[in-house]
Amino acid sequence: MARGDQTQTAVLGALSVMPMTGYALRSEIQNTLGHFWNESFGQIYPTLAELERQGLVERRGAERTGSSTFAITGDGTARLRELLAQPEQPARPRNGLLLRLFFGRQLGPEACRDLVEAARRRAVEQLAHMSAVREELRNDQQNTADSPYWLLTVSAGEHAARATIAWADETLAALANLPAEENP
After folding, report:
1. Domain, as residue range, for 65
2. Whole-prediction pTM value?
3. Which of 30, 83, 146, 177 is the most exposed, fewest CB within 10 Å of its CB?
4. Which residue intervals define the domain Transcription regulator PadR N-terminal in the entry (predicted)?
């Protein structure tokens, strides 16, 4: 699936839950999908305009883009289902931490330890956040049809955080066994 199609999927998917403004859409994507997906205002507004042009969303309310509410149309729902049925195209990973560790000899074990400890702290925070999101979804009485699916993504976030914590613990133990070196 091309990047533009993925943006359409995120926008149409969010609007399938409820109509909202472009600003609210960006906030909703950031707050609910943020542990695995993001979109910028620079992607959302052109996508909304294109989806409106195609008749996949309709504008309700004020004429200014920032105050208009957008709602998915029947054709938009059909397009969303079509996009969701397409095979997922894995993105090439870009991980700044692993890039630094790969060339870690240049930093030395202590600097690498600091990087890994920071990654571990972030993973612990992410795990706590995912736990809070899980509890919030369990108590949500409005989106009961969507909740089981949303919980699948929360579970992925929890597993990823636990995996990062386990990897960080293993990596810190390995770094502790390396001799302190001077930078070459």
Report:
1. 3-85
2. 0.76
3. 177
4. 11-82
